[in-house]
Amino acid sequence: MKTTFTSGLAIATAFTLLTASGSAADSPAALLPSSHAAHVHAPVSISGGTQVAPSVALDLLHAQDQQFERQIVQVAPNVFTAVGYHGANTSMIVGTDGVIIVDTLMVPTAAATALQALRAYSDKPVKAIIYTHSHGDHIGGASAFVGDEMPAIYAMEGFGSAEGVTEMVGPIKAKRNVRQFGRNLPLAEQTNRGVAPAGTVDRDGGKGILPPTVLVPHRGDRTVIAGVELEFHYAPGETDDAMFIWLPREKVLFAGDNFYSSFPNLYAIRGTAYRNVLNWSESVARMATFKPHHVVPGHTLPIHGQEAATTALENYSAAIRSVYDQTVEGLNAGKSPDQLAHDVTLPAHLKDKPYLIEYYGTVSNAVRAISVGLLGWFDGNPTTLNPLEPAIAAQKIARLAGGTRNLTTQMEAALQQGDYQWALELSDHVKWLTDGDPTRAREIKIEALRGLGALEYNAPNRNYYLSYANELESGQLRDPWF
Predict the structure, then answer these.
(1) By C-alpha distance, which of 271, 376, 259 is closest to 320?
(2) For the chain, which domains are there?
(3) Over the stretch 71-102, which tens digit does the pLDDT of each residue have?
(4) 72 φ, ψ to 5°?
(5) Which of 24, 52, 198, 385 is disulfide-compatible with 190, CB 3.0–4.6 A?
């Protein structure tokens, strides 16, 4: 255990942009790390993606690991944040006759370990628990913080609405969640989860959830707990039941999951209802108006210093709004979501910000989510209104290639050339063909997925590629669902 004092952006890895021209911008293998003692270079996005040379991808992911090294960070004289004890952060605010806990991790065992470390700074009883939002990794360990008396538990009005109607597809979301976070990956394939460490122990996940006893109205509220002045502010973004907490005396702002050191996960590939991107941007912009001296994210290290903290929030909001505005402009110009996913990029002055590297969310995923959220699944092109059944399309592609054998040859050649996405797409055609070799198609898909995974510095994408490959290889996934 250690106490860490940090200032400005010294708490995050400093990044600079790789510059590339010609073939360098088109080839992931051409993007190589530049040796610099104090910097790790951020990648140039390739075709709207997050793929770079494997060595660069690993360097970037390893650099992000420092954001969740286990430690106690002293944010202010009476505010302490436990980082790295599970996927999210939990914080303790020390008052006159008790302490206040902000978020409680996902599991009671991890929460108890974090509390033990926090107790080095105060042994006062827990007077209140505050949930910034209802995602399980922030509420599942609450019981570990309860002593002889039950504390008041604060949450935003409408608490529990984080998943919404998508609860109906819980079974498939659970499978995709495991892939996104790489929960079943062997140790050799694990890196991290973008804004959290890999390999968290989750066996008692959610068993410590306690229901809120005080619901904060959307208009917000102010209160005093254990002599500490607190303000609750409604902040829809990642969830519709999110809020941020402001300590006016300490100038500390608890942002929840609307801010962390990564481009935000405006869409989670495990599957989510539409996250209102415009609301998210506006909520973060509102946080910036408080000009905090310290920002405590829901994940990753706090940011200290008024200029650094305020600027980070302003830039974060601007990045979200820019992606939204570019997407809306492109949609109104008649462009498809797939085209826009390759066209939309962060403004040049934001690309090198360490808290906007696409470790967790990606711009391309966000663009597609915004498109569907605003217009639904139909992209406006009549070609996609009633597309061919996959098996029929595969037959026509095979004829176009000169037969199934030629299509299979092209699939194998794409893999050999490192054209993994094309190999992946061709394998999905070959597997439908009655005169094709589904076993070979499966083998190619597995190798292509692992090839793509090696190129990814976006943790959810990487984890999903590798997890899916392992499920295919082990036989967990069977035809035609591969």
Answers:
(1) 259
(2) 1-382 (3.60.15.30), 388-474 (1.25.40.880)
(3) 999 999 999 999 999 999 999 999 999 999 99
(4) -105, 120
(5) 198
